[in-house]
């Protein structure tokens, strides 16, 4: 069973391309693109044009719904932690670290800690949890 889905672009069907023409002879129409997967907007849009059309129409409502940024966010020493790795001089071995983008402090972690996204060493806000 193929799992086809429609492009979410509200004006997709108005873009007159050959591949959008569907229907029986004498009753052909331009139709919203339907594919098993799309490349844009987390797989929801057939093109950047359709993604932009969606945002032009719904973007403000989406931002208001999910939370509009109304003041500056701050990257500080408390939320500037990221995972990283360094190569040795011969590019044979990686050394895994967590690094603070503000203070430049660096602490070693294991490869398992680096690979594991669920261990909460660093939360999704960039804060240290160990
Ligand atoms: Zn589209």
Describe this structure in words.
The structure is a single chain. This protein is of the alpha+beta class. It folds into 2 domains: about 5-65, no CATH class; about 75-130, no CATH class. The protein has helices spanning about 50-65, 110-115; strands spanning about 5, 20, 30, 35, 80-85, 95-100, 105-110. The termini are far apart. The model has no long low-confidence stretch (mean pLDDT about 95).
Ligands, deduplicated:
zinc ion
Rg result: 23 Å
Name the strands of the widest sheet in spatial order. Answer: 5-6-7
Shape: elongated
Q: Which stretches are low in confidence, meaning pLDDT under 50 for 5 or more residues running?
A: none
String of helices and strands: EEEEHEEEH
Tally of DSSP β-strands: 7
Helix content estimate: 10-25%
Largest sheet: 3 strands, antiparallel
What structural class do helix, strand and pairing data support? alpha+beta
- Tally of domains: 2
Strand content: 15-25%
**N- and C-termini, Cα separation:** 47 Å
What's the SSE blueprint?
Blueprint: E1 5-6, E2 21-22, E3 29-30, E4 34-35, H1 48-66, E5 81-87, E6 94-100, E7 106-108, H2 111-115
Antiparallel strand pairs: 1-4, 2-3, 5-6, 6-7
């Amino acid at each position: 069973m193929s799992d086809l889905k429609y492009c979410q672009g509200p004006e997709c069907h108005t873009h007159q391309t050959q591949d959008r023409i569907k229907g029986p002879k004498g009753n052909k129409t331009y139709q919203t693109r339907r594919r098993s997967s799309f490349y844009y907007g987390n797989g929801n849009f057939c093109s950047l044009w359709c993604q932009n059309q969606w945002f032009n129409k719904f973007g403000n409502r989406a931002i208001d719904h999910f939370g509009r940024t109304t003041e500056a966010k701050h990257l500080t020493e408390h939320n500037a932690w990221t995972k990283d790795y360094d190569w040795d001089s011969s590019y044979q071995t990686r050394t895994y670290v967590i690094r603070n983008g503000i203070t430049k402090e660096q602490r070693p972690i294991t490869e398992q800690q680096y690979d594991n996204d669920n261990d909460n060493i660093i939360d999704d806000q960039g804060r240290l949890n160990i």
